[in-house]
Amino acid sequence: FPVTIIMLGTFSMRSKGYELSRFASLKNTIVIGGLSKIIKHFIDISNVDHFFTYSDYSRTDGSVYEKLNFKIESFIEPNYFWAKNKKKVTRGVTGAFKVWNCGYQKWIFTA
After folding, report:
1. Which of 15, 53, 68, 111 has the highest local Cβ count within 10 Å?
2. Cβ atoms < 10 Å from Cβ of 57
3. Neighbour tally for 98: CB within 10 Å
4. For residues 37 and 61, what is the distance between their CA atoms, to the nearest angstrom?
5. 39 close to 109: Cβ distance less than 8 angstroms
């Protein structure tokens, strides 16, 4: 039988602990309680009691994390990268321009 992934989360080991680095669902699909289920499963299989993640102001206000009892650790100011033809490039490339983001929030979860 073919398998369709409806929702997933990825956790990555960083120098300061685990990070919820990606969280996504199938297009036009809502899974009620999906993020909390992914977090619970990660805690159950890894025995980790805390981790962090980021929310991008251009995509969300981060309220989903607040509802799951994450705490804001810090705010990251807006920053930019260089782009040309819809691709990131290094500074100094002829014809490149700055693309600004809206900033981020860093969230901490403690079980």
Report:
1. 53
2. 15
3. 10
4. 21
5. yes
